[in-house]
Amino acid sequence: MCNSIALKLGSLKLDVPFFQASLSGYSDYVMRVLARRFGCPFTLADMMLAKSAANPRVLRKPCFRPAPDEHPVGAQILGRDPAIMAKAAADLVTVGYDLIDLNFACPAPKVLRAGRGGALLSEPDIVIDCLKAVRDVVVAPVMMKLRIGADHKPQSLDNFWKIVTRSIENGVDALVIHGRTVSQRFRGKADWELLAAVKSRFPDATIVGSGDIFNPAETLDLMKRTRLDGFLVARGAIGNPWIFRDLRCVWENRQIPPPPGLTEQRLVILEHFGRILKDYPERKAVRIFRKFFAGYLRRHPKRKPALIALMKSETRAEVETALITWYTDSSPNA
C-alpha cells in the first residue's frame, strides 16, 4: 500500500513515514548507523542540553557532531532560555545537523526539576518564545517534541492545545507528540486518539505520533485510523535495528522476513560492541554497552540466564565468549 507515502519535515523529505527518536543515553552514532543500515531514513542524535551545545569547546568534541556518512540527521536540544536555545540551534546547524528538534517532552525527574523538557508544557509562553527564537536564526527544519500535557488535569490539556495551536501559527515544521502525559512517564498505553484529534483540527500541519511502536505489522492500521503524517520509533529500536527493516517491508507492501536467528543477532551485537570499543577503553566500553544488552536480549528464548551471563562480563573476551555461548543457532542454550 504505502511505498508512495513520504513524510515531509519542512524541506526534509523521507521515503517512508517513520524515523528513529532521540533516545537519551542510547542514540549515539553507532545506534544511528545501524538503524540507517536496516532501513531507517532519518535519525536524531542523543538529546543535548542547549547550554552545552552553545559552548564552542563542547561542540568541538566529535560526539557532538554528525558523521559524514549519516545524513540526514537531526539534533535535539533541551532548555528553557530562548537566547541559549537559538544559539545552540544555530551552532548545531553550522556543524552539519540537518534538522533541529526542540524537546518539551522529557519526563526525567532531573530534567523536570531544572524546569526543562516536559516541565515547560505548563509554560506555553516560554515554549513559543523558544520556538520563535530558534526559527528566526536557522534555515533548517525546526521540529518540536511534546507530550499531551503535564498530567490529566483540564489546565494541562488547555496548555497542550495552546502550545499546539501557537507553534503551528509560528511556523514549526513538524510536531512530534507522545501520547502520554509527563506524569505518566511510560506507564499505561499511549493515547493515539488525542493525536488523531490534533491532526483533525490541523489537517495541513505535519503531525508525527509517538508511543508504543513495537509491532511493525500494527502500524498500518494505526496510521489509517489516526491519519497522522508519520510516527516515531523510540524504545522499540533499542537493541532492535531489525524493526526498521520490518517497518519498511510493511510500508512497501512486502512480506516481513523471519526474525533474525541467534547467529545473525550475535554478529550485529558484536559489530555494535566493536564500534563502541573504538571510542572507549575496554572496560568502560563494556559498561557502556550493558544498557544495550537488555534490548537485544528481548527476543532471546532464554533471556534471563543469557542476560546474567552478559551482565557479569567485564572484558571484551568475556563478552565475546558469552555471545558465542548464548548466540549460536546450534547452541544447546538457544
Summarize the structure in words:
The protein has 14 helices and eleven strands. It has 334 residues and is of the alpha/beta class. Helix 4 (82-94) runs parallel beside helix 6 (124-137), helix 6 packs parallel to helix 7 (154-169) and helix 9 (216-226) crosses helix 10 (242-251). It is 44% helix and 13% strand. The strands form two sheets. Strands 3, 4, 5, 6, 7, 8, 9, 10 and 11 form a nine-stranded parallel β-sheet that branches. Strands 1-2 form a two-stranded antiparallel ribbon. It folds into two domains: 7-251, Aldolase class I (TIM Barrel, Alpha-Beta Barrel), CATH 3.20.20.70; 262-326.
From the alpha-carbon coordinates, what is the Rg to the nearest angstrom? 20 Å
CATH-assigned homologous superfamily of the largest domain: Aldolase class I
- Sum up the overall morphology in one term: globular
Domains, number: 2
CATH fold title of the largest domain = TIM Barrel
The number of helical elements comes to 14
Rounded to the nearest angstrom, the distance between the terminal CA atoms is 36 Å
